[in-house]
Design brief:
- This protein is of the alpha/beta class.
- Helix content is 21%, strand content 21%.
- It has eight helices and 27 strands.
- The strands form seven sheets. A twelve-stranded parallel β-sheet has the order 1-3-5-7-9-11-13-15-21-23-24-25. The protein has a four-stranded parallel β-sheet with strand order 12-14-16-22, with no helix packed on it.
- A hairpin with a 2-residue loop joins strand 19 (247-251) and strand 20.
- Helix 7 (394-431) packs across helix 8.
């Protein structure tokens, strides 16, 4: 009798992961004290490997490059170190001795792995961004948080793994600029680059994150969460159920654990880096965004005056930057907003009021606006001069007038075009006898036809 599924979670198992039956498809031995893999570990039919929360040390075995059917790999909360296997030419030769010497090492069409979920958080993995992912063109969920990865993010991410829905690189040592190419991940819903050493400006092509803009839906291959045990058998796709793992997400000023429906979080977290420059205006195009955290950076300039277009936003943290100017009145349009932190910036002017902002002021006003000595009006103690109203900031007012002028220019052009067209027709009838005769002859025919129709009916 062949073994297809082996599930032994939350026991007291120790030692190494043994040699497994060649027929095994699902391996679930999480929450034990497994310390590693046996040499030459192989499981040719393995599709799901759940080994999180053990004591596995050393490196991930290179035999993973020969696991052509593996779809889900969760090795989170272990003691893995060094770098991931890059599945280079030597591994490909072991997969197929008939490999063409002229073919590229990263020929994903012939030798790519089928991994869709790769969860490696809370280990001690190091080196640069793993080249291993180049062999995983179907990757949907990638979690490398709380490791020791270094270096710059490569520009090939969006081309090598274009179907990413979740990219979590939190709490590593990545550095350099955030590559513009990362904004070509059209399906991404969770983008977490926080607590690294990124510097430079935030890429301005945020509108390319199509799912976050709400203009498209994610790839149909995406499941509800990354913790769903699914595999293919003779009958098609089989669902074992959801295994007991979760994601720690910083949202609304606290760390929350998410399991089911994780991908519906729709978040961007770039906090705790050294990003500079202004917040891109293109940010306002992300109408599906639920959580935005840009805190603890060196961002300057004004808060985008169109930020009120983020109608799905529930959590907004822009604290601990050097943002200046006033708080946009459009923030009052964020009716789902339940957490707002603008503390420790250089904001000035009157604090807007109305709608959701009044509720946030009542909850915790000190946390929201503290560290901005230039702000005035409720709920801070400093009173604003003049009548108690909510004027727009100079920048917002200038942008508003610019929009008004554009509308006026359009209306004026329309009127001038109408008058000019009418005058040309009138002058043609006035000075061109042939046109005038033809025009009135046409009117006579129309009049006669209408008269006949009215008499008959």
């Amino acid at each position: 009798m062949s073994v297809v599924e082996l599930s032994m979670q939350s026991n007291l198992l120790t030692g190494f992961v043994p040699k497994l039956p060649r027929t095994i498809v699902v391996l679930g031995i999480s929450r034990n004290s497994i310390c590693g893999f046996v040499p030459n570990f192989r499981a040719p039919q393995l599709q799901v490997a759940i080994l999180f929360s053990n004591s596995i040390t050393g490196t991930i075995p290179t035999s993973i490059c020969r696991s052509r059917k593996l779809r889900i790999l969760d090795l989170s909360n272990n003691f893995l170190s060094a770098e991931l296997p890059d599945c280079g030419r030597e591994e490909l030769k072991q997969q197929s001795p008939f490999i063409n010497n002229s073919s590229g090492v990263n020929s994903t069409s012939s030798f790519g792995l089928k991994i869709t979920t790769l969860l490696l958080r809370n280990n001690s993995l190091s080196s640069g961004f793993p080249l291993f992912t180049q062999e995983c063109p179907n990757l949907i969920y990638l979690d490398l948080t709380q490791n020791k990865f270094t270096g710059e993010l490569p520009g090939w991410i969006s081309k090598a793994i274009p179907h990413l829905v979740m990219l979590r690189l939190r709490s590593n040592n990545f550095s350099g600029h955030v590559p513009t190419e990362i904004m070509e991940l059209h399906n991404v819903r969770i983008l977490d680059l926080s607590n690294n050493n990124f510097f430079g400006a935030i890429p301005g092509s945020l509108q390319n994150l199509k799912v976050l803009t709400g203009t498209t839906t994610a790839n149909t291959r995406v499941y509800d969460n990354p913790f769903e045990e699914t595999y293919y058998d003779k009958m098609g796709l089989a669902d074992v159920g959801q295994y007991n793992d979760s994601l720690s997400v910083v949202i609304k000023g606290q760390v929350l654990e998410y399991r089911m429906n994780t991908i519906y979080l729709m978040s961007i977290d770039l906090s705790c880096n050294s990003l500079t420059g202004e917040i891109p205006e293109e940010l306002s195009s992300l109408a599906g965004l639920v959580s935005l955290n840009l805190s603890s950076n060196l961002l300057s300039g004004n808060i985008p005056y169109k930020i009120g277009k983020l109608r799905s936003l529930e959590s907004l943290d822009l604290s601990k930057n050097t943002l200046g100017g006033g708080i946009p009145q459009s923030l009052t349009d964020l009716t789902y907003l339940s957490y707002l932190n603008l503390s420790y910036n250089n904001l000035s002017g009157r604090i807007p009021s109305g709608h959701q902002l009044d509720i946030l002021k009542a909850d915790d006003p000190d946390c929201t606006y503290i560290g901005n000595p230039g702000l005035c009006g409720g709920p801070v103690l400093r009173q604003c001069p003049g009548p108690p109203r909510d004027p727009s900031t100079n920048e917002e007012s200038a942008r508003w007038h610019e929009d008004v002028f554009l509308q006026m220019d359009f209306s004026l052009g329309l009127i001038i075009g109408f008058v000019a067209g009418t005058w040309i027709v009138f002058c043609g009838l006035l000075f061109m006898k042939r046109w005038r005769y033809a025009y009135f002859r046409l009117l006579d025919k129309l009049y006669d036809r209408l008269y006949v129709i009215c008499v008959i009916t």
